[in-house]
Design a protein that fits this description.
single chain, two-stranded antiparallel sheet, globular, 22 helices, mainly alpha
Length: 510
């Protein structure tokens, strides 16, 4: 495939622009970047507008842009679960995250594991939460590279060279500027994504003769199904609900939330972030448009290539280059936040807890910066060196969702009750991780797994099945340990820590 120099030139221009912004961000709302609080949480200075871009850009990734419509292109109606799952997530966000922000602000927490350690008096449980978060995050970072890889390949450029360049740039400005860099770049990224989607939703239907002809062409082909079959109702519901429960347990989501300057900012964002759900629904329709063209996949291509192929077929090179830049920049924002979140977890809950309890703030920040580099290098090596890396990353990311939801009892339920015994939650974590992993692997990493209920087979999300097992074990073993008078663990929090609004950090607007 020859190089599309026009598209590539536009791509390089916007990539250079965000590179400059990434380094300039170090001077934005200046703080001492030798403190992990400033480097890893931007000093908790972000207001409503910046937080809206950061959290939205953090959760709606480049892989979302290609995988959601790709799923509709390949599987039809079942792929649309991504839209209701985000709709379910925002009320949960409104209820849970302001409370979590308040206790974190009052107690000086940087990570979810900080809270678990203090709340349940268990360094072991906190360690398990930290390890789970890091394991769930790593394949997610690798999938951002898949987004860049697919976009660059469509322009005919060497994907491996592009990935190395992109992630050297990413590593440099993340190390230098911390969380401020992805926050500033998220504003550019989301603007570009919105423009791309709006233009695509106007131009492509006109080109194809309207939405009635788009859906008519798919209905006439009779595949993939436009209507969800009854056999998938339970699977669809559990995919949406389970994904919603898991979303804000991811370390990068918690990092984005903790970077805000008040709990009111979080509440306002809970009201405003559903705009991204609307955008996601529109992005999903691109998968159906690709079917109506119809887009044919070439050798070695997957459903993830459907949207880039669609954009190349319909639009002139300059706009295709703009769209591919939007996709690739859309990978840089979440990849940066994910690497920072993983570094925060390692530094605070593994290095400082088990190796250097008395390490000074400067050393803490230095370790976090170094770990963020190692995480990105590891993800890059994974994608470039491992055969079938994309498929493996997708499988591991599916496992990551099943794993991270197992931290729900200590992290989110712990906000409301201290009743669960620390050892019961450890047993619950082991049981949930085992059940979810076994179900996923046994069914070849499928997003749904058949479960038998009294002779009736129902397709369910493995992560949610694991969570149910986790909660059952927590509920069973807590009274057992209490009856045995096993030490509960010292609660380092007070009721006021959860409710009392701390003084917000002064900031010069958004």
């Amino acid at each position: 495939m020859s190089i599309d120099w026009v598209a590539l030139s536009v791509f390089i221009f916007f990539f250079a622009l965000v590179t400059i912004l990434g380094f300039v961000a170090a001077r934005w709302r200046r703080g001492d970047l030798n403190q992990i609080f400033e480097w890893g949480l931007a000093g908790q200075r972000f207001g409503t507008i910046v937080a809206w871009f950061l959290i939205g850009g953090d959760l709606y990734t480049a892989y979302t842009f290609i995988a959601v419509p790709g799923s509709l292109y390949a599987k039809g109606a079942i792929g649309f679960f991504a839209v209701p799952y985000t709709i379910i997530a925002w009320p949960l966000f409104f209820v849970v995250l302001p409370k979590f922000w308040t206790i974190a602000k009052n107690r000086g927490y940087i990570t979810a594991s900080d809270f678990v350690r203090d709340r349940f008096g268990s360094s072991t449980l906190a360690l398990l939460v930290a390890i789970t978060g890091i394991l769930a995050t790593m394949p997610y970072i690798a999938l951002q590279m898949v987004g860049i890889e697919v976009a660059v390949q469509q322009m005919g450029f060497n994907a491996e060279v592009a990935l190395v360049i992109a992630f050297v740039i990413l590593a440099a400005y993340t190390y230098y500027s911390g969380l401020r860099a992805p926050a500033m770049i998220a504003i550019v990224k989301d603007t570009m994504i919105y423009l791309t989607v709006i233009v695509a939703l106007i131009v492509i239907p006109i080109h194809l003769g309207g939405f009635d002809k788009i859906f008519g062409a798919i209905a006439a082909a009779k595949k993939p199904p436009l209507i969800l079959s009854k056999q998938l109702y339970a699977g669809y519901a559990t995919l949406a609900f389970g994904s919603a429960l898991a979303l804000f347990l991811y370390p990068h989501a918690i990092t984005g939330v903790l970077s805000t300057k008040s709990r009111e900012v979080i509440k306002r964002n809970a009201a405003l972030l559903p705009i991204y759900s609307l955008l996601l629904g529109l992005i999903a329709l691109l998968g159906y448009m690709a079917l109506a063209v119809p887009i044919k996949l070439g050798p070695g291509q997957t459903s993830n290539n459907a949207v880039p192929l669609l954009l190349s077929n319909i639009f002139p090179s300059w706009f295709a280059g703009f769209a591919f830049a939007a996709i690739s920049i859309g990978a840089l924002v979440p990849a940066a936040v994910m690497s920072i979140a993983a570094a925060n977890l390692f530094t605070r809950n593994i290095y400082k807890e088990y190796f250097r309890r008395d390490c000074p703030e400067k050393e803490e920040a230095s370790v976090a910066k170094l770990v963020s580099l190692i995480v990105k290098v590891g993800a890059l090596a994974f994608i470039i060196l491992l055969p079938s890396a994309t498929a493996t990353a997708i499988n591991l990311q599916l496992l990551g969702g099943a794993w991270i939801i197992q931290t729900l009892p200590p992290v989110f339920l712990g906000l409301y009750t201290k009743w669960f015994h620390r050892y019961a939650m450890i047993i619950g974590w082991i049981g949930g991780m085992t059940a979810a992993t076994w179900l996923a692997v046994a069914n070849n990493y499928a997003s749904l797994t058949p479960v038998n209920f009294f002779g009736t087979s129902v397709s369910l999300m493995p992560a949610l099945v694991g969570l149910v097992a986790n909660l059952v074990l927590c509920i069973i073993f807590t009274p057992v340990f209490q009856a045995m008078k096993v030490a509960q663990g010292q609660d380092g929090t007070t009721p006021a820590d959860f409710e009392q609004e701390p003084v917000a950090v002064p900031a010069a607007g958004d």
